[in-house]
Amino acid sequence: MKAQVTRDTAPELALRRELHRRGLRYRVNHRPEPDLRVTADVVFTRRKVAVFVDGCFWHRCPEHATAPHANATWWAEKLQRTVDRDRAADTALSQRGWTVIRIWEHTKPPGGADTVEHALTAADRAV
Ligand SMILES: [Zn+2]
């Protein structure tokens, strides 16, 4: 099972609906940089804002991360690799001028959309 394989989860769809309702248009499940093996959930190409909706379990949300008891070591290493991959992706994208937004799946869509809109406004000012 790959952490990145889950697409179009309910929290992603809820955020996308909220962004769309606010008149924002974006690409879905898109690679911000074609040569980087990183797919963001929502991408604003012109303003270079990449949004990831991170699952609380897989990406180890500080509020909801749980540690399975069975195969504890294996899980700990697997989940740590996911987190390491997240941070590496953040760094790689930032170095190419992207604003990376990570929203926990537990975030209510209005709050998540506010965060995205804020980043878009900041990106507009930077252009
Ligand atoms: Zn959470």
Which descriptors would you attach to this protein?
127 residues; binds zinc ion
What does this structure look like?
- With 127 residues, this protein is an alpha+beta fold.
- Helices cover 43% and strands 17% of the residues.
- The chain has a four-stranded mixed β-sheet, with helices on both faces.
- Helix 2 links the parallel strand 3 and strand 4.
- Helix 1 packs across helix 3.
- The longest helix is centred in the middle third of the chain and has 24 residues.
- The model has no long low-confidence stretch (mean pLDDT 93).
- The protein binds zinc ion.
- The site of zinc ion has 6 residues, from loops.
Can I get a quick summary?
This protein has three helices and four strands; from the N terminus they run αβββαβα.
Average pLDDT figure: 93
Poorly predicted runs are none
Instruction: Quickly count the helices.
Output: 3
User: How would you spell out the order of helices and strands?
Assistant: HEEEHEH
What amount of the residues lies in strands?
Answer: 15-25%
Any ligands, ions or cofactors bound here, and which?
zinc ion
Strand arrangement within the widest β-sheet reads 1-2-3-4
Radius of gyration over C-alpha positions, nearest whole angstrom: 15 Å
